[in-house]
Structures are given as C-alpha cells and as structure tokens.
Amino acid sequence: MTFQKFHNWLLAGIFFLVFAPGLRAQTTFEAYAPVKQVIQGEYFNVSFTLLNADGSDFKPPKFTGFRIVNGPSRSVSTSIINGDRSSEMTHTYLLEAGDPGTYTIGSATIQVKGKVLRSNTLKIVVNARDQQSLEEIASDAEIFVRAIPSTTQAYPGQQVLIDYKLYSQVSVDHYSIASESEYPGFFAQPMRRFRGRTQVEQIGSKSYTTLVFRRVAVFPQVIDTLEISPIRLQVGLADAQGRNNFNPLISPRQVIALTSEPVKIAVLPLPSGTPESFCGGVGTFELRTDYDRSSLTTDDALTVNLTLIGNGDVKRLEAPAWMNNDSFEVYNPSMVDENIFENQGELLAQRTFEYQLIPRYPGKYTIQPQVAIFSPDSSSYVFLEGSKFSITVAPGSGRPRRQEVEEQAGQNTELVIRPLKTQVPLLTAETPFIQSNTYWILVGLAPFLLFIAWIIRQQRIRISNIDPVALRRSKAMKIAAQRLTVAKTYLDQGANREFFDETSKATLGFLTDRIGIPPASQKKTLIRQALESKGIDGTLIDRLLALLNQCELALFAGQADEGAKQEVYQEALEVLSSLAANTD
Question: Which site in 48, 50, 224, 453 is 20 to 30 Å from 320, CA atoms measured?
C-alpha cells in the first residue's frame, strides 16, 4: 500500500470516529400534519417533535385559520437500539379547520442548550364542505376515514346502509369513536352483529389496508335532501417499524384525529297510483301465509295470518286490505307479532297480521292473498302472492253471526215485567261468622302473621338503607365471575363472537360496578385516568386495556386467534381478581 492510500484511509477513519456519533444522534425539530388538505370543520392533529435533545421554552406558532380544540399535549420517549440512544419530545395540538382557503402554519421554536431551534412550516388547504372524490381524498393522506352510503337516492322507509371505513397506509394500533354521526330526518339503527374484515384496496397508484369498522342502517322519514354529519375518530398509530395494519401487539406512537365527510341522500316521494293492497313496505319483502282450518261452517270464523318479512322500515308496515271477495265478512285485522333482526349484513323486519274471515255462504273457495309493496330497484309497485289454499264451507245452524247478534241486541229495548212469586221456600238460618271455627282460627293466627309482617318490614328497611353504589361494588366480582362462567361455556362450544362479547361485558361491567366508571366514560384514556387516580399499578392497567383491545378487535375487526382464546379467558380472571384485590 502506498503512503498516499494509507494517508487517505487514516483520514477517513479519523472522520468516522469523530463525526459518526453525531450523525447517529442528530438533533432535529420538525412539524408534522397527517394531511395537507382538510374539509371545513374537520379535526386534525399538528405535532412538533424534537429528536435527540432536551428542549425547553417551547413556543407554538399562530394557527391562523384554525381553532385549537385541544393542546398542547406533551409526550416524551427514549429508546436504545444496538447501543444507540435516541429520544423524542412531541407537542401535539388538535385543530379544527375554519373557513376555506390556503393557510400556512408558521414555525414553532424551542431552546436546546441555549440555542433556539425552529421547525419547518406547514401549508394546509381547507376545502369547502362539499363531496370530494376518493382519489382527491387519498392524494395526500396516509390515513383517512369515509362514510359510504349504499345509495345516495332513496325513498321514505327504504333501508340505506352507511359503512364507516378506515383507510390506512400506516400501522394502526387502535381506534375509538370520538363523536358519532347524527342522522336528522332518519330512523337509525346500528348493526350489532356486523363483522368487518381488513382488506387491501387500490386507489389510483396507492395501496390501502381498509376496515369497515361500523355499519348503521338508516331509514329516511321525510322527503328532502338529508345530510348525515361526519363521524370523528381518535386513531393510535403504531411504531413506524410495524408492518401489520390494525395490529394490537404494536405499541402506539401517536394519536391522531380523523373526520369523515358528510353524506347527502336525496329522498324522493313514492309515485302516485298506490294500490289498495299496499302495506307500506319499501324494499325487498317476502309474504308468508298461514290459516287454521280447511273445513268450517257459516257459523265459524277462519283465521288467516299474513307475515311480511323484508328490509324496509318496520314502523311503516300496516295490515293490507287484500280480501275483496263479498262471500266473506272481514273483521278489523290486528298485529300479533313483530320482530327485528340482522341477517347477512342488513336489518330485517317481520310483522304478522291476523285476519278473521266469516263465510256468508256454503261452498268451496280458493284463497290466495296478494299484497303490494314498493320496490326501489324497479321504482314501481310490486305485488307479492302468498300461498294458495282451499277451504270448504258447510251450512251452519242458522244462528245469526256475531255482528248481527250484536246489532239485534242493541235494537231490543222492550221492557218485560214478570209476575211476583207467591211461594217462597223457608231456609235454615246459618251460623254467624263470628261464632264459626274459621273465625277463631284466624284470630289465633293473627299474632303470628303480624310477627312475620314485622320481620319483612324490618328487612325492607335494612335493604333500603344500604347505599346502592356500595351494594353494586360489593357484588361486582361475583357478577363478573358469573359472566366469565358464561364466557367459558361459549369458549368450550367454539362460539368465538359470543365468548369475546361476554368477556368484554364482564370486564366493562366490573369497571362500572367496582370502580365507578359509567358506560359513557369507558374510553381507554378515561379508564386509565380513573384507575391511576385510585393508585392501581400501571402494569395492571396496561393488561386490562390490552384485554379490552383484544376483545374489541375480535368483535369488530374479526381478528380472533383460535389459540389465544384460552389465554384471554385466563387473563380476564387474573386481571379482574387483581383489580378486586387492589380496590378493597
């Protein structure tokens, strides 16, 4: 090796030894927003992150064009990888977009070892509250949420499904609904048994992992252009090294706020020419027929049940006038059964109407009920035909039918005077009650009955004096154990959804009864705050939240590891028992 080459290698080595540690621990101060375009009124986060230094005297910029909803929240983390130490200090603001326009968020400043560092600026475009195309939304966003209606044009009483879908190019640790959509002009029913699954979708040149995390069935009630307000989410992003989206095992890096766009649905009136047998159903329906007999007389009544099953608004279903044969008298029908249930991702309703038919004349009759509904698919009225059946009517006894009897009874106003009886039989006088054996038996039992009544009253007074909160608190673990016993039964039967649902109810119910956290406040951040205020160990809190997160993902994201169910059950027993022991 020549002297010149040796000299070059020596200088390179000295440079590496001197400057490499500085390169590994470079100090930066950066501003970050997950979106570059937002909708007027939308919430989003802006964070200012200092890497590899201890900072002080943080000063935010002016957020012209935006309203500060919350913040700043401060978080600090330190990690050591392969001997290299790195630190991170982040100040985060939750902002609400104001009037449409293009705004620049200026530089924030922070002091590090006597020097003032400035962050980069951010340019944010605020769009008016109109519908954006999916490509426009995805153009600058790594993660966003959408409300997707099954149709944007509907009729009163028609079922419209609203899917709330999360799109992400980054790993998601968890999510929670910060505020629900509002549905003015609709009857809304969330789908309880809906199970969304993660999928991969291509939007332009970008690939997104998606999850439909919520589905709501809505039924328009008025004729107008109706608007469903946005849904707002809090989403915890996982560490950047994570690869599996919606993975509960990755620790969160930051929490951001997401807001969907509003949804507009045009509600059209039903066309004219409504058939006489129209039942009020709008959608897809099935008609079932049932009757109680095939042979009767003109003195008897035939009972016919019509059952309508479909995806329209159940409140609009009325008993249709389907019998137009003058050979029968039809009494006012009545609704005898109603049921609402979920099937294959939509809401179905069932109503049964009972009809009483009295034949006027003997003979053989063939009956086939026919009911009209409105089909949104064809934008027309459609006739449903029930099962055809035959009956044989024989002559009756000649007695007038009930209606005629009631009419005749109402017209009979003649007063009949009967003669007095002239012979009255003599009766033996009865023993007075006060001298009977029954009377003296009751007198003997009276003190005993009064004593029993006094004991019952004292017991009620004692129970009424017990603090109901304290009573629920004392029974919290017993009730949770009963629920977990039911969950174990589902576990043994292989009923995954029922197992996770019962385990979740046991845990959340315990938090309500034992800790005093009401259902409306059972968000993970509030649960953590409540438990920390009671001095519960942080490790136990983390185990509890991980348990709830695993149940939530199994219920709503369809992520249920077959081998982990037994571990979830054991973890629930241990966590709740530990909480009970630490909250005596």
Answer: 224
- Asked, colleague to colleague, whether 24-128 and 278-398 share their fold, the answer is yes
Three-state DSSP state, 455: helix
Residue type, 516: G
Domain 278-398: CATH class, spelled out: mainly beta
The angle at the Cα of 176, spanning 216 to 66, to the nearest 5 degrees, equals 100
Cα distances from 208 to residues 143, 202, 213, 436, in angstroms, run 8, 6, 15, 91
Closest CA to 220 of 273, 285, 267, 287: 267
Q: Is the pLDDT of residue 285 over 70?
A: yes
> How many CB atoms neighbour CB 345 within 10 A?
15
Cβ atoms 309, 349 nearer than 8 A = yes
CA distance 553 to 556: 5
Please give the sequence-ordered ranges of beta strands (E in DSSP) within 135-262, or none if there are none: 143-149, 153-154, 160-168, 172-179, 186-190, 199-203, 206-220, 225-228, 232-238, 252-259
**Cα 138 from Cα 542, distance rounded (Å):** 34
Residue that the structure tokens 């199970």 belong to: 195
Query: Does the domain at residues 24-128 carry the CATH identifier 2.60.40.10?
Result: yes
What mean pLDDT is predicted for residues 222-239?
88
> Which residues neighbour 12 within 8 Å (Cβ) at sequence distance 6 or greater?
none
Size (the chain), residues: 584
Token pair for residue 11? 């200088």
Residue entry with tokens 């530990």? 578
Nearest to 144 by CA among 128, 162, 168, 163: 168
What gap in Å lies between CA 371 and CA 351, rounded to an integer? Answer: 13
Looking at domain 468-582, its CATH architecture is Up-down Bundle (1.20)
Which residue in the block uniquely carries the two structure tokens 């081998």?
563
**Strand pairing class (389-394; 295-297):** parallel
- CATH of range 131-269; options 2.10.260, 2.60.40, 3.55.40, 1.10.1670: 2.60.40
Kindly calculate the radius of gyration of the chain based on its CA atoms and give it in whole angstroms: 37
Distance of alpha carbon 102 from alpha carbon 271, whole angstroms: 46
Q: Using CA atoms, how far apart are residues 384 and 288, in angstroms rounded to an integer? A: 10
| Cα separation, 381 vs 272, whole angstroms | 10
**pTM tops 0.90:** no
Domain spans in the chain, listed from the N-terminal domain onward? 24-128, 131-269, 278-398, 468-582
Mean pLDDT of the chain: 79
Distance from C-alpha of 296 to C-alpha of 135, rounded to nearest angstrom: 68
What does each C-alpha distance from 480 to 31, 96, 372, 572, 575 come to in angstroms? 46, 41, 50, 10, 11
**What does the DSSP 8-state code read for residue 540?**
H
Q: Are 153 and 265 in contact (CB under 8 A)?
A: yes
What are the angstrom distances between the C-alpha of 109 and each of 61, 201, 482? 8, 40, 56
Confidence grade of residue 415 (pLDDT, cut at 50, 70, 90): very low
CB hemisphere CA count around 329 (13 angstroms): 13
Structure tokens, 191? 């789908």
Residue 363 has pLDDT above 60, yes or no: yes
Name, in order, each residue with C-beta under 8 angstroms of 295's C-beta and a sequence gap of 6 or more.
391, 392, 394
Give CA–CA dist 346/219, Å, rounded: 12
50, 110 in Cβ contact below 8 A?
Answer: yes
Eight-class DSSP state of 515: I
β-strand partners of 286 = 309
Distance, CA of 467 to CA of 465 (rounded, Å):
6
